Amino acid sequence: xxxxxxxxxxxxxxxxxxxxxxxxxxxxxxxxxxxxxxxxxxxxxxxxxxxxxxxxxxxxxxxxxxxxxxxxxxxxxxxxxxxxxxxxxxxxxxxxxxxxxxxxxxxxxxxxxxxxxxxxxxxxxxxxxxxxxxxxxxxxxxxxxxxxxxxxxxxxxxxxxxxxxxxxxxxxxxxxxxxxxxxxxxxxxxxxxxxxxxxxxxxxxxxxxxxxxxxxxxxxxxxxxxxxxxxxxxxxxxxxxxxxxxxxxxxxxxxxxxxxxxxxxxxxxxxxxxxx
Length: 276
Fold this sequence. Notes:
- The protein is α/β, with parallel strands linked by helices.
- 48% of the residues lie in helices and 17% in strands.
- The protein has eleven helices and seven strands.
- Helix 1 packs across helix 3 and helix 2 (32-45) crosses helix 3.
- The longest helix is centred in the first third of the chain and has 20 residues, at 3-22.
């Protein structure tokens, strides 16, 4: 076989794997970019298509298994139904709080949400553009951010269902936002933003690919980057995570040319990053 025919065969195998993954109940909601990346990595390691497909499914489960919960989407959808066109103030807060409560990752921030963004933006200044990467349900935190509606909110996540929800939230609440289904490890990122949010995401990226978190940080074009880490597991256990993440990531931030400032909240370690 020629090199060209080998390449075409490999591409056809990846295409077939992507189509198979899109037919699964769990992963059919992921954007094609993400499915293709996992399929390509698996195909590079396994010659047999069946083995490669199983490997891709294993990696997808490790990366997204705890976040592709249908009940989470259902609860957030029910909460969004409470948001009427032009909603603001307390009615918007009530609905958004219900949506944030739908997943442990955002629910555990609720006890200190009133202070969280006020503290963060006191360090960065009030942004006119926000890039929220692997955002999940976090854009529902908008009522607590204290930002004008002309602030441009760019949300990105690999889950098409969540992006559809966030898009509807922006439209109903009159937020100047865009929700894009994007594999943040493969797709180009919007540049020139004031603040980029990378919330509880870097360890998950490293679980997908070694060094993926660092690679993402090196591609972000923002005046400030806000990175957070959970300090307890989704099950609520504290296992020295705060100390571990500080020891591992602080030197990496400095190596990338950032000056990190740490903030501590009840269940979250926050780093405010500014280029030296």
